[in-house]
Amino acid sequence: MKPDTDSLSMRLDKWLWAARFFKTRALAQKHIELGRVQVNGAKVKNSKNISAGDIIDLTLNSLPYKIKVLALNHQRRPAPEARLLYEEDMKTASEREAQKLLDQASRINAAYPDGRPTKRDRRQLDRMKHGSW
Question: Are strands 42-43 and 37-39 parallel, antiparallel or unpaired?
């Protein structure tokens, strides 16, 4: 039988996996090793034990997350249950949503700022590239 301390703390990589931030524990470990995960403001190792009340700062896909651990669960459960394991900082969530919108807008306009080239424009571009002017 496991001691009671297991229910009070849990490995960080396992919690991130159980809370569905990462698809595998290996991905969680990689992000921790790269320094993209901090607990209570300090860089940590995979084996760092966390408990309820800890604050996790996470950078995932270049987007910030600030999470307060509410509960521990040693099994990976469905997403609605996983969301009950943490509470997200609303300021960070709004910053992340603004960043997503900005990224999406810049991707659309970067490739064709004046719209897609017409067939005529494409021919002119080809002539310029191949030196047929």
Answer: antiparallel
Element (H, E) at 39: strand 37-39
**pLDDT, tens only, 39-55:** 999 999 988 999 999 99
CB burial class (10 A; 0-12, 13-18, 19+) of residue 11? buried
Phi, psi of 11 (to 5 degrees): -65, 140
Confidence category of residue 11, pLDDT binned at 50, 70, 90: very high
Length of the chain: 133
Instruction: Find the Cα–Cα–Cα–Cα dihedral 55, 74, 4, 37, rounded to 10°.
Output: -30
Question: What phi and psi values does residue 13 have, to the nearest 5 degrees?
Answer: -60, -40
- Would the pTM count as exceeding 0.90? no
51 in Cβ contact with 8 (< 8 Å): yes
- What's the gap between Cα 119 and its chain centre? 40
